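@channel sequence for tomorrow's demo:
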Amino acid sequence: MKRVDVPVLLLGGTTASGKTALSLQLAAATGAMVVNADAQQLYRDLPILTARPTPEEEAQAEHRLFGILGPEEETTAGRWLELVLPVLEEAGARGVPVILVGGTGLYLLRLLGGLAPVPPVPEEVRRRWREDPRPAPELHAELARRDPATAARLRPNDRQRILRALEVIEGTGRPLLDWQRETRPPVTFARLRGIALLPPRDRLRERIERRLDAMLGAGMLEEIRALAARIPHLRRLPLARLHGLREFLDHLEGRTTLEAARERTVIVTRQYAKRQSTFFRHQLPVCTPVETFGEAVPQALVEELRAFLGGGAASAGLSGRREVAGR
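structure tokens (generated this afternoon):
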């Protein structure tokens, strides 16, 4: 088990809570490396839709793992661990503090608790299950016959996890729960701190709508149209799980109005934010809830985090906070 000897701050929270703004402020003041822990922002395409840091923002600090995967690649916790562990090792060797920023709480949970050591599943087994056309409840019933213990822990509509459990029991001969019992943390931390930005729900709803309108104004629809023209089978790729992509593809294909696509995307994003809030509050106790937006975090806490990362009290970069769309 490897050990990371530099300070590591876990900066989580809901979508549109201002995580990017706060990470940039802290990184500018401390020289920290900003490392992505958000599944949507791993993708190279659709930077507006995924609210990735802009090139100008990335130029303000060292950024890693943003916009590195193609649309056909999966963004599982296991894949992210493969990507992030070498980055943490490098940061430790260089003596650079790290800010792990993102809303995918499962990534942070697996980083702290480990991932089941499941051996590779044969590609033909994996492909056969991934191409199975049956709806999720029928696949859940199939899993209940093959692996009742794992099925009992999964929601009948959780297609991705159901398929994973099915391919594991067929490909390895052992239930997924058996492998999960052998889980060990992949890394330990000499200094670890965590916060989760969880703004009040009513204010977050407003922020989500404002951010989506800003994205539309910034050319989000055009970037989706261009990608769909380049990849006709876009809906069948893992990238299609991005919030809002299917909704706006429906509009571009004439199936719905722009306003309907916008409204549906707002609803989907709000639902996701609610799940994120629940996850951070109940699954990641290491992340102290901070019930405001990133640009409104109390100055005393900002200075505390800056000191944790190694920045002096007089460091520049935190006095001029700005209101942002919230990422």
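heads up for whoever presents: Residues 312-325 have pLDDT under 50 and may be disordered.
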